[in-house]
Structures are given as structure tokens and as C-alpha cells.
Design a protein that fits this description.
Radius of gyration: 19 Å
CATH superfamily of the largest domain: ATPase, nucleotide binding domain
Number of helices: 9
Strand order of the largest sheet: 3-2-1-4-7
Order of helices and strands: EEEHEEEHEHEEEHHHHEHEH
Shape: globular
Helix content: 25-40%
Distance between the termini: 12 Å
Structural class: alpha/beta
Strand content: 15-25%
Number of domains: 2
Length: about 300
């Protein structure tokens, strides 16, 4: 058995996994994003509640937003949950529960879950994107997260798609995140409608046939498609999995993304690379964290 935790700015979610099956779930509202004592107490309380038989728990996995020093199991600079900054969370968990504890980026965890149990099941090389407040990415090869030399592989959201484009929250210009995150979508809506409109409202408008809303999703999909083409040319994955709240727009987003991707891919035999929505839902990050702890 392994336990997986997904720490978010709104909720902290957890699962208990046995033979790759979720046998228990838990979720609590995040009490504080800035107070370390309160937040860590919440995380540990959630873990404790999932421990049914300590002798059978082989590992604990924890997913956190933002960059992670994977080798030293340290949270670096989380964008929302600032209480975790520079915390050696893996070490803290191991000391608390006397169980191997491992941390990783939350989207890495999501992609691992989708690779093993979800939309990428049975495939060898899976690339995934999590589209929401920000844009995270992950690469899974042979059922293992590919971290790279310094553990920074998969930062697809901060690849440049417009050299002199919009300013990103990271400080660079033209990052993918500046176009296909919630913030990026609002900015695209402002260019079309003259005012910011959130993704949920834009989706509802598109479903009702609003041509400008459909255009906003198509433009967003085109930016995504440019990035997908780069992924295919660089890595030639079996499948690309798209998750996160923005992916809830479905084909309003993905149809134009696939079209733009195929237009820009170099190799004709790679043009039909599958781009699919994530399958596992809101607990995918926690499931992936639990799978991470099995390694």
C-alpha cells in the first residue's frame, strides 16, 4: 500500500492505493497557504487518517505545485502555497511517520497517474500538460517520471512560443503559460470582447454558439498546438495527455490544437500523434503521488 497527497491552494487531497486501486480518498480545504505550521499539520493529519495498517504502508508520495529539488526532496518556490518554500518535505514526512516519503511536482504526479492507469495506459512514452492557473508539464518513460539532470524536465508551460509576446508570471515573454492558462485565456477574451471573461463563462458561451467565445477557444487551441508540435518533434511521444481545468473545454480547445499541431510537425509519420484528455479526474495528482511512492 502507498499513500498519495496532492497539495493545492484550495484543497489538499489524498488517496490510499493498494495494487494500483484506490481504496480510500480524503480531501480537506487548505487552511493556510502562507503559515507553514498550520499547513504541514494539515498535510500530516490527512496522511495519518489514511494510514489503516502502518506495517503495510510502503511509501508516501506528495505532489506540490512549482519546481522541486527532486534529488534533495526539497520544495523550491511554490507559486501559491508559499508556506512550503525551501521545506525538505520528504525528510519531514519520513521523520514524522517513519515511512519512506517522496515529493515531486504535482503535474509530474498527474502525468504519471495518467500514464499508468489513465489515458496513457499501455503506452511507453507519455507527455502530459496540466492547464489551469498555470501550465505544468511532465514526461513519463517506462512508467517513471523523467526528471532530467537537475530535475527540471517537463517545464513545458515556460517554453517560448512568441519571442516578443505576452509577459508571463515567470518574468519571461511569450511563454506558453501566458496564452493557455486561465490568465492567458482571459487576456485573449479581452482582445476579442474588450473585457476579461473567465474560462467557465467562455465555455458556457461557446456551448450556446457564441462565435466570439468559440474564436477565443480556437485561438487558445492554436497556441497550444504550436507547443504540441514542438513536443512531437522533440520527443515523439506515444500520446499527449491534456488535463486541468482549462481542458474541460474539450473539443472547443483540442480540435484547433490538433489541427495546428499537425500543420507544424516536421515528420509526416508523426502527424497523427494522439492528443487526448486526461481520464482520472480531480484525484489524479494524488494517485500519481501514491504511484511515485511505489518506485
Amino acid at each position: 500500500m502507498t499513500i498519495g497527497i496532492d497539495i493545492g491552494g484550495t484543497n489538499i487531497k489524498g488517496v490510499l492505493l493498494d495494487s494500483n486501486k484506490v481504496i480510500a480518498k480524503a480531501k480537506v480545504l487548505t487552511k493556510s497557504k502562507s503559515n507553514r505550521k498550520i499547513l504541514v499539520a494539515q498535510i500530516f493529519e490527512l496522511i495519518q487518517g489514511l494510514i489503516k495498517d502502518k506495517k503495510r504502508i510502503k511509501g508516501i508520495g506528495i505532489g506540490v505545485a512549482g519546481p522541486v529539488d527532486f534529488k534533495n526532496q526539497r520544495v523550491l518556490n511554490p507559486p501559491n502555497v508559499t508556506a512550503l518554500k525551501n521545506l525538505y518535505l520528504g525528510k519531514s514526512g519520513k521523520e514524522k511517520f517513519k515511512i519512506k516519503t517522496i515529493i515531486d511536482n504535482d503535474v509530474h504526479c498527474l502525468v504519471l497517474a495518467e500514464a499508468i492507469l489513465g489515458a496513457g495506459k499501455g503506452k511507453n512514452l507519455i507527455v502530459g500538460l496540466g492547464l489551469g492557473t498555470g501550465v505544468g508539464g511532465g514526461i513519463v518513460l517506462n512508467k517513471k517520471v523523467l526528471h532530467g539532470a537537475q530535475g527540471t524536465a517537463g517545464e513545458i508551460g515556460h517554453t517560448i512560443i512568441e519571442k516578443h509576446g505576452r509577459k508571463c508570471t515567470c518574468g519571461s515573454k511569450g511563454c506558453l503559460e501566458a496564452y493557455i492558462s486561465e490568465r492567458g485565456l482571459r487576456e485573449t477574451a479581452k482582445e476579442i470582447f474588450g473585457q476579461e471573461i473567465d474560462s467557465i463563462s467562455l465555455f458556457k458561451m461557446a456551448k450556446r454558439g457564441n462565435k466570439k467565445a468559440i474564436e477565443a477557444w480556437q485561438i487558445t487551441g492554436q497556441y497550444l498546438g504550436i507547443s504540441l508540435a514542438n513536443i512531437v518533434d522533440d520527443l515523439n511521444p506515444d500520446v499527449i495527455v491534456i488535463g486541468g481545468g482549462i481542458a474541460g473545454a474539450g473539443e472547443f480547445l483540442l480540435e484547433s490544437a490538433r489541427k495546428e499541431m499537425r500543420k507544424n510537425i516536421l515528420s509526416p509519420i508523426a502527424k497523427n500523434t494522439k492528443v487526448v484528455r486526461a481520464k482520472l479526474g480531480g484525484y489524479a495528482g494524488a494517485i500519481g503521488a501514491a504511484l511515485l511512492a511505489k518506485n
